[in-house]
Amino acid sequence: MTEPTPTPPAARRGFIGPFSRRQLLGIVGVVIVAAVGLTLATRPIAAGPGGATPLPAATPFLVGPVTEGLRPGQQAPELAVTRGDGTKVQLTDLAGKPVRLEDLKGKLVWLNFWATWCPPCQSETPVLRDMDEAYRDQGLAIVGIAVQETTPSDVRDYADRYQLGYDIAFDASADIFNLYKVYALPTQFFVGPDGRILDVINGPLTDDAARARIDAWLPKGDDPSGGAPSPSPAASPS
Asked: Quick one: which of 1, 61, 73, 204 has the fewest CB in 10 Å?
């Protein structure tokens, strides 16, 4: 007697195509988590408790924990420190010449903490170069303070490649970086002709945002203080 051939079970149909409901929900969950993570990773950091001006469309490169920093209205520290062991460290430019705020009194000083390997710093380089060329003879002094670099030659090569004419200092020991409580690159300090901090910005400046600040704060006539500081100009989106 011949046994009946067993009927194969019907093919199991997925919720959509070959995927079950559970598999689809898992895939959707992974996509949502990835999207949220990407949003948080690319979202500009908020200003720290130090009173820095936030730039909504500019994302600085974090190099340390957000901390309370220097505030507008405070006297800008001189670019030198005395360590605990009594060693004195003076910031110098790429040629070894001391860089002192005292020597820049009467000018609008733009301190720019940056690094050659930092993407937002790189994107800001043309702005610094253009502002230096446009305002150098009108009382603006830009000092780029290179930090977290291996050698001064790396910074010099970068400056030569992009034809940067403003002063560039090399903070090899990070003493000035720590003195100014910097935690993001680039970080900008605008210092008035009287030596007081006018604004602190975490992140790169656009051409328009930089020009608005410079036009507002350049020394006016014979007034050594440059006039009363006006509120920080609104930052333009990058």
From this structure: 1
Cβ contact 118:57 at 8 Å: no
pLDDT of 102-134, one tens digit each? 999 999 999 999 999 999 999 999 999 999 999
Across-strand partners of 201?
Answer: 53, 188
Fold for 61-217, please state it.
Answer: Glutaredoxin (3.40.30)
C-alpha atoms less than 13 angstroms from C-alpha of 154 in its C-beta half-sphere: 12
> Cα angle at 115 between 155 and 201, to 5 degrees?
135
Which phi and psi (to 5°) does residue 127 adopt? -65, -45
Strands 140-146 and 167-170: parallel
Can you tell me whether residue 220 is helix, strand or coil? coil
pLDDT at 59 over 50: yes
Q: Calculate the alpha carbon distances from 16 to 23, 24, 30, 70, 158 in Å.
A: 10, 8, 18, 58, 55
pLDDT at 202: 93
The CA angle 187-192-223, to the nearest 5 degrees, is: 165
Smallest Cα–Cα separation from 117: which of 142, 148, 143? 148
Predicted confidence (pLDDT) per residue in 17-51, tens digit: 555 666 656 665 655 544 444 443 333 333 334 45
